[in-house]
Input
Amino acid sequence: MCVVDCPVHLATETASQALLTPHALYVSGQIPATPTGEVPSGSIAYKTSLCIANLKAILAAGGSDISRVVKTTVFLTDMKNFAEVNEEYTKHFGVDGAPTPARSCVAVHQLPKGVEVEIECVALPGGGLKQQREQEAEAEEAELRAKGR
Output
């Protein structure tokens, strides 16, 4: 197991940003913060996009990508924001042929730094969907060449 380090601000300094195991990359909950730790104002959709941008940066640092995410947990301080969060979420997960990850959405009393949304995820390690498709195409091509001999 190894700790993944990325220049993304943590909601709390007592957790690792992510832990990489042979079978999964566990990414800590990401809040809508800039790399300097600033929590900007804006719509809940914008804040959700910042959470996802932070997830993407950590996934990349861990050698994975958003297409390899198998589970997310979304924490909201107000379930009235669910529809807007969901609209932004679906712009990033389950696109370009990637499966939509399993997801839980939990209402909580409050989140670190007074934010309204936090998202954590679990992803498969290794290359993303594009790399997987390239490898499958190469294997298929090799198989066709072998049959042609």
